[in-house]
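**Discrete fold encoding**
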Amino acid sequence: MSDELMEYYDDDEEFADFDEDDDDPLNATGVSRKSLVIFFLIDTSGSMKGTKMGELNTVMEELIPEIRRVGEADTDVKVAVLTFSNSVMWMYSEPISIEDFEWTRLRADGVTSMGAAFKELSVRMSRNSFLNSPSLSFAPVIFLMTDGYPSDDYKEGLKVLQKNTWYRYGLKTALGIGKEANDDMLAEFTGTPDTVVHAYSGGQLAHLIKIIAVTSSQIGSKSMTLADEGGRELAMEDVYESKQKLLGQQIQEIVKSEGYGDGSVPFDTGW
């Protein structure tokens, strides 16, 4: 990775930025507070109408206080929510500090414009937009939730998103909701099936959203350095690969311990 793309900080600090298109990747000389943005990408298409959306709204309202306890005292945690149906829309015009964030209950209608959501996320995931914190930045946490297959060309949108350096180094997870969700497609988004889980019922939906969001945020806000056998610090690619691997391991341990995904729990007939 080039020196122009990243600037390294001593001790346990993270890299300041990952977007090669940014003119000023630092933008924060002498600032020690670190920033973590958690992105929620939420399917609000018509198939989410009723029980699914009602349960999702309820658990997200309960989740916010739990995320407030994530991270160290010097970590500024912010939340950004992108919904997609006929069009894509941000819940707020910019990421909101977790201390001030209030959930706005979502409604479901329309089709599943996931490809458009990927393109919009790529535009906003930049120092020139949603990641313009004047502090050092952890790579973002990106959590996708959907109950069906995209109605647009999600592969085209994903190709655009994959060029975004913040996305490449972010912690990516996905939750499939109900019997129509396609886990293989979700694994294309996260890069590995280990960070994809499936909710078979309303109870699982609530439980898994909390587990994934809190676990991802905890790992995402963790300062981490790696060294080889000779004690030399490894490249930042290895650090974030290690974080993603750790996230997948923890999620799969929870899935197995709870008995999710093995077919033993039937789909909720209310869905």
